[in-house]
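This entry is retained here.
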Amino acid sequence: MNAAAQTAPRPRPAASDRFDLLRVPVIGRFLRWRWARMAVQGPVLVLSAIMIAHAIFGPQLAPKNLGALLTWVHFRGLVVLFLLLGGNFFCMACPFMLPRDLARRWVQPRWAWPKFLRTKWPAAILFAGILFTYEWASLWSDPWATGMLIIGYFAAAFFVDVFFKKASFCKYVCPVGQFNFLGSTLSPLEVAVREPGVCADCRTKDCIAGRRETGEGIPPLQRRIIQRGCELELFQPRKVGNLDCTFCMDCVHACPHDNVGIMARLPGEEIAATGERSGIGDLDGRGDWTALVVVFVFGAVLNAFAMISPVYALERLLSRVTGLGGRGPVLALLFGFALVVEPAVLLCGAAWMTRRACGSTDGLSAIINRYARTLVPTGFGVWLAHYGFHFLTGALTVIPVAQYAAEMATGHAFLGMPQWQLGGMPVAYVYPIELGFITVGFLGSLAVGWLTARRHAGIRAIPALAPWAAIALILFLVACWTMSQPMDMRVTFIAN
């Protein structure tokens, strides 16, 4: 089979045949409005301030605290559901960027992000660190610590982007953003070019360079930028999918030809895409992206496993066998095995078997980078099942907590007396939904794995895919067993 034919991307439908959210009458008009992002960031910023205040000064019982409840139940649940049904709209509404945007009106960043840090390694390490801290410090039960975490996030985003140019925090630091980037590979929408031919004839490239003011007698490069281009360095004509895209709409507003939309696409297709991507490069040569994928996928199973009672028995066993004292060192050992040792053994073994089956001359690292990301759908299915469980079983708990907070703050029950009996869907009804999420994720990994294997292994696609399908199956079975166990009802009063 011709190599170019194996790696060529699937032709996309014409723009006129693809759904474009920006062409939906009311929603599209709002999203095309220049101040749309600030209009959604503002309310979220106010809500964040309320959460911080209640987390620090409110009751320190998590089920009665808005900071803890909204952070660990509602925010996480809504994030994964938005990613599944739409796209990375939570990054669009990110409140952390609003203070830095306001500060940049008076203070312009002077430095470029250091070259040696222009990878996903810092974000992957921070992602793993947050997962560890969440368990070690029992953040779900500590409103004050949750409030401090939110404040720390605001401070980090503000100082990084006030001192460093472009969107350095989003691209290289933010763990939540990286979670959203990987999850959005399964989203049905992407920010994309409508007609490639229009971009081919464009001379100004405003989507990446920014749109400058017009005026006679002023050299073009000296004209003031009135609309910034993509700060994530994603050049729209060469952009592939949702990786590194925050849905900020800057490219939409900057394009003088109205040639950028929020387009429908096949979820997961970008995972199997090959070749150079604008602002990212070739993922087959990006071990840092693979490290992020490992934390995303194996961290999903580990985070869910930490919510069931067998984990406590395992911690006691590890403490007894190793002689380690305290929960911190035992958790560190467990996390080190689950996020480093286990993935290294499985991925290296699968890559070796794929190379042998295909007679490939590619190095193990290239094969791992290429196939490891096919596990993202399985990992996302586990995150959906886990976070969906907490959200669906506790969706209405925000009502009595808000009523209680209003009464304590003002002395008047103007929102009504707290209705503590409100909760959510019964656990028995949520369990089949969890299994459905995990199953769809597993099938998604098989589908993108098949596309990847066909493009790189041709007629040997089945033996090339088999080891990676086996890893996905292992993760699937472990996740199904985990979700079948009684799970801690953290942050809520609901009994399992």
Q: What stands out?
A: The chain is about 60% helix and 5% strand. Residues 1-11 have pLDDT under 50 and may be disordered.
